[in-house]
Design goal:
The protein has a 4-stranded antiparallel sheet, with no helix packed on it. Helix content is 0%, strand content 51%. It is elongated, with a radius of gyration of 15 Å. The protein is mostly beta strands. It is built from no helices and 7 strands. Strand 1 and strand 2 form a beta hairpin.
């Protein structure tokens, strides 16, 4: 199974820039389907990025985040070759994680 997370992390001197795209429906619970019935809420609740085991970014999300969210941020303290672990959990108990090397 392929990961729902695509990530790129690039180190430039002491700053590492991270860009991630996550495939997820992010249903708010306020949208109706073709039959006119509400689509139950299904969204990512927690998103974490950790570099070499240390958390560098944590987000607590709700139903207001759009489908297939894109995240971009930067942090200090990493270098090329370090591991960046990305994980998420959603309101239905789903989860995914992946690890990328910082280039």
């Amino acid at each position: 199974m392929t990961s729902s997370i695509r990530v790129r992390a690039t180190a430039n001197r002491d700053i590492t820039e991270v860009q991630a795209l996550i495939q997820h429906p992010m249903d708010s619970g306020f949208v109706k389907d073709a039959k006119g019935e509400l689509i139950p809420p299904h969204f990512i609740q927690e998103l974490k990025f950790a570099c070499n085991g240390k958390e560098v970014f944590v987000a607590d999300w709700g139903p207001a985040v759009s489908k297939d969210p894109y995240v971009k941020f930067s942090f200090k303290g990493a270098k090329k070759g370090d591991d960046l672990k990305i994980s998420w959990t959603d309101n239905k108990g789903g989860s995914d994680e992946t690890t990328a090397k910082i280039v």
